[in-house]
Amino acid sequence: METWGAARYGDPCRECGFGFGLSPDEAVAAVRAAPVTFAERLAEASGREQLPGLSWNTTAYTSHVTDNLRAWSGWLAGGYLGDHPEVPGYDQDQLAQARRYNELSLAGALWSLRWAVDAWVQIVPE
Description:
Structural class: mainly alpha
Mean pLDDT: 89
């Protein structure tokens, strides 16, 4: 279980409210449910809604979750399937700027989230 997230962002996260105190089973269940949860909560959204106190809109936040899961999938695979257990991390704001999160479509972001969750779940040990 990683421990740097709570130290860096607070517990719960100061920006999004995510709580780092989940058990491994609870974390896997939350990630598995993410595509449906996001789709339901954003069913009436355009994707351009601004989140209070954040520079990201709802599409950008969805894209952030997607990219975070993709990154962790690769890092977990490196540790479990290979011989590279180190996690280099990344700057979420630089990635958001490079991918132009606020300009992406919500439908595309939700589609990508499903694929990222599938990849993450495949590499997480049971």
